[in-house]
Amino acid sequence: MQSHAALEYDYSVAKLFTYTTILFGFVGMLIGTFIAAQLAFPELNYWMGEYGTFSRLRPLHTNVVIYGFTVSGVFATFYYSAQRVLKVSMAESNFLMFVGKLQFVLYVILAAGMVVSLLMGYSSSKEYAEMEWPLDILTVAVWVLWGIVMFGLIGLRREKTLYISLWYFIATFLGVAMLYLFNNMALPTYFFSGGLGNIMHSVSMYSGTNDALVQWWWGHNAVAFVFTVPIIAMIYYFLPKESGQAIYSYKLSLLSFWGLMFVYLWAGSHHLLWSTVPDWMQSMGSIFSVVLILPSWGSAINMLLTMKGEWNQLTENPLIKFMVLASTFYMLSTLEGPIQAIKSVNAIAHFTDWIPGHVHDGVLGWVAFMIMASLFHMAPRMYKREIYSKKLMDAQFWLQITAVVLYFTSMWIAGITQGMMWRAVDEYGNLMYSFIDTVAVLNPYYTIRALAGVLYLTGFLMFAYNMYKTMTASRKIEAEPQFRSPMA
Amino acid sequence: MDIRELQGYASFFMTVFLVVVLYSYIVYLYRSEKRGEKDYEKYGNIALDDKIDSTPIEHNPKSQSEKKELKNEYVND
Ligand code: HEM
Predict the structure, then answer these.
(1) ipTM metric
(2) In terms of CA atoms, which chain B residue is nearest residue A154?
(3) What distance lies between CA A278 and its chain's CA centroid?
(4) Residue A117 lies in a domain
(5) Does residue B35 register a pLDDT over 50?
(6) Do B41 and A249 touch (CB under 8 A)?
(7) Ligand 1 centroid, distance to A35 Cα (angstroms)
(8) How many CB atoms sit inside 10 A of residue A383's CB?
């Protein structure tokens, strides 16, 4: 096939998003570690006036790690893997290349706007949807451009069947688009009040319980369509490719896909148990959450079985270790979540530290591990150099695993202690503890979590350094490795 | 029956309906493979053999580039 000789996959956009993944990962986790330290050492709140307080920095942490780090990682891995599974290069269409680069430029502007506006205190006060309306509009533009590239590449494809990863990327695109639009419906007050108030400010179109329902319909699906679905897309491509083993059961991947889509959308009301939403809706949220174990474990077991007969790779290749551990943590958090969604358990867990504990065994053990492993796999292929250091990668792995375990175990203990203390009553029915009593008891666990943050952040810096050296100084390789990534 | 009760029933029956659809899909997947009409497992190789010049597992007949390529090949021959 001579016409192909010059044709190669084009990774320019994938590389750009790789850089933002690393940058926002570092910034987001630095802020995470800092706010963790603030909870243990409250004096740290007063170093920079209003800009340094926990309340200002917490939404900054969540938004930077979700929309900066994770979403960049999703775009980077999409721009890398979609070309490959469709067997079409971005270089074959000037139009798509232009749209991809435009998407990146607008994304960077959006991210900068997000950081600045949140720091200045502009917030719609809806969790994971804090950005105010001008940035929401920009978000829609970035998302639509991504869709154009996605469906454009699909239109040009040589491979007729869409590989399962692409199904998940498409679901990410559609799910976020639908829910983001619904949840962010708001009226900019300035324009509707005849010029009163701040131009950035807006008011949600929903009110009261309806607002809460729409918010958590979105909020939970931010977990679904940003932290789960595109990460499954990654593991379905990168684990088979790195290990040289095809997915254990392609059929199981298809039916877990539809199972996940069907169930996930209706689990959001588990965020509103014991609140004012109709009782049947709360029960529905609980039941759907428990059923969610099935499709989640369907994917995770499929990944583990992919390694069947090849478990030796786990000891030989640290990248496989990252990915297998990621799917194991995916199993842990998709078991823990449904347990927390049972009404009686939720009565203890809600509003306690057990919730951030649950969040972080998912995001640190599953999301961030999978994103770092994917970028490691991509690096030798994008930069045509071997990975700079296997030893460093191994050390990073052990450091970060320790961090994750310290994080979630300390928060388990803290959360359950807190939940029990809040509801403890004496023989006359009076509350036994005041709020500050719980704070005093929890302080050591907050310190452990802050330490976990320092360890994880150090591991992330090792990752960033390893990537940087891979890009610039590592040994060149002639041919693209077929499966296992070469590393020194 | 007020609207809230109605919503509850609607949600319940929609769930039952979708469960039936999902299970039929599973049955369809396994049956069509058993009868030899389909082979889903071969698609797993799309990720493994993904060089730009590898032969697709299934050619996309609509691919413009494919047509161009075929023409080129013809010229090259
Ligand atoms: C160095 C690593 C990290 C540390 C030390 C850290 C620390 C924290 C802290 C202290 C909170 C606030 C908890 C509270 O309000 O009580 C938080 C919340 C949160 N973090 Fe992190 N974080 C880290 C990494 C990440 C990453 C990588 C992600 C996602 C990819 C993430 C996602 C979240 C989310 C979604 C919340 C909100 C949880 C909730 O509302 O219940 N974090 N984090």
Answers:
(1) 0.83
(2) B63
(3) 30
(4) yes
(5) yes
(6) yes
(7) 9
(8) 19
Give Cα separations from A282 to A274, A346, A473 (angstroms): 8, 11, 55
Which of B15, B40, B58 has the CB atom closest to A159's CB atom?
B58
Domain that holds residue A85: 12-188+198-472
Angstrom distances, CA of residue A198 to CA of A125, A189, A202, A349, A481: 15, 8, 9, 38, 55
Task: Note the pLDDT of residue A197.
Answer: 87
Decide if B60 and A157 are in contact by the 8 Å CB cutoff.
yes
Q: Determine the distance in angstroms separating the CA of A379 from the nearest CA of chain B, rounded to an integer.
A: 16
Instruction: Bin A274: left if φ > 0, else alpha if -120 < ψ < 50, else beta.
Output: left
- Backbone φ and ψ for B37, nearest 5 degrees, come out as -80, -30
Which residues have any ligand 1 atom within 6 Å of their CB?
A: A 29, 32-33, 35-36, 58, 61-62, 65-66, 69-70, 353, 355-356, 359-360, 363-364, 367-368, 453, 456-457
Could you list the residue range(s) of the whole structural domain that residue B72 is in?
3-76
Residue pair A378/A14 in contact by the 8 Å Cβ criterion: yes
Contact A240 B18 (CB under 8 A): no
Q: What is the CATH number of the domain that holds A386?
A: 1.20.210.10
Look up residue A60 and give its two tokens: 């900054």
pTM of the model: 0.94
Q: Where are the alpha helices (DSSP H) in A342-433?
A: 343-349, 354-362, 369-383, 390-423
Q: What is the DSSP letter of A204?
A: E
Tell me the per-residue pLDDT of A180-221, one tens digit each, with 9 for 90 and over: 999 999 999 999 999 988 999 999 999 999 999 999 999 999
Instruction: Provide the terminal-to-terminal Cα distance of chain A, rounded to the nearest Å.
Output: 34
> Which pLDDT value is given to residue B64?
64
Residue A337 maps to a domain: yes
Distance in angstroms between the alpha carbons of the first and the last residue of chain B: 76
Q: How far is A480 from chain B (nearest CA, A)?
A: 9
Domain count, chain B: 1
Residue A486 lies in a domain: no
